[in-house]
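Onboarding guide, step 5: your first structure request.
Type a short instruction followed by the sequence, for example:

Predict the 3D structure of this protein.
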Amino acid sequence: MSSALGSLMTLVAARQVGREEIVNYFAVLFRGKLKRTWSHVWDKLVSCSSDLYPAELLGDIEQAYEEDLVDPTYIGFKHVKQRLEMGNDRLLARLADDPHLRLVEDTVAEMGWWA
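The system replies with structure tokens like these:
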């Protein structure tokens, strides 16, 4: 599941899906779709949310920390607030520039080093 969240970030970075659509989906996860016990998925959900400018999700994120659903050594609440201070435009620009969030255009070029 955490890899699936990362793939959604790639779709936002590639402008295949809008930020708002993913934020709305993350809200559904925060608000009951995910079992409310710790798992790495909660860590990844908060991490991905923080990369999307999490203003709409801040209350949900804070609640997740209060319920010990997030490992603060994976991502601290301070980090989430720092991302908010960066602003929406700057965070989305960082996503677009992240080489780890690119669509695979040439499978052979991407995977050839495995041989």
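Each response can be followed by summary notes, for example: The first helix runs from residue 2 to 13.
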